[in-house]
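At this stage, I wrote out one protein, both as residues and as discrete backbone shape codes, and that material follows here.
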Amino acid sequence: MIKITKRALILLMGALVLIGLGIASLYYDAQDSKADPRVVEARKLYKKYDEYAGENNFTAVLLLLDSVEDIYKKYAHYQNSYEIAVIENNRAAAWLTMAIHSETQTMSLDGVTVLTQDSLLERSKLHVQNAIATYKQWLNKFENMDRNAISQVIESSFFDDLQEPDETKKQDYLENRLDEMQTAQLENKRRLSVALTNYGIILRHEQKYMDAISLYQEALELWDRNLAAKNNINILMGKPIEKRNFIQKMFPPEKDED
């Protein structure tokens, strides 16, 4: 294996983490009057996410994610859904970002306890593994279902604990949720690709280079335009880093239709 400059890795990994956060949080930006009222507060909380992440305010990020998860975990329908994977991958990205920063500065969440890079990577690994498992479980169950099949599977759990006497509104909430899940059938492969890439970065830090490359390759099989995964392979193999061309910058892959 070639020797990789620390600066190149920090820049690349930092960019990757931000890509991961962007894809994960995009879903929560949209507000709709037909959105499930039980989780609207979680979506509002997520509006602060990019701000905290951009400031590297890791304590605020982690507390926010805990609050968002608490809301989703209240309801049976959401307890094993892809939203939980989104939260877990964002947690992993936060711990991974701290691990990257720990190469150049001391990291602490409480101002007292110094967090080592190894401990930060272990926390990131735990959460990214949870994210990957949840994404894969969700895709195995829902990826190939049509709208009617999804509706038949989720209707009972979705209406559980939904305190809404108006049957028309209840149906609107269900139809909106079906829209979200059909969008997730496309987006979750990309989200899983980002989680796999983050896991690869963790393994690279642990000097498990071949395992890292395997994860990057799996990520590219899911999303062949995952430039972060491709460039991590390029660095490990001593190849030039690829840059997005003008068209790719104007029309980011996550906004394209599959």
Remarks:
- The longest helix spans residues 167-205.
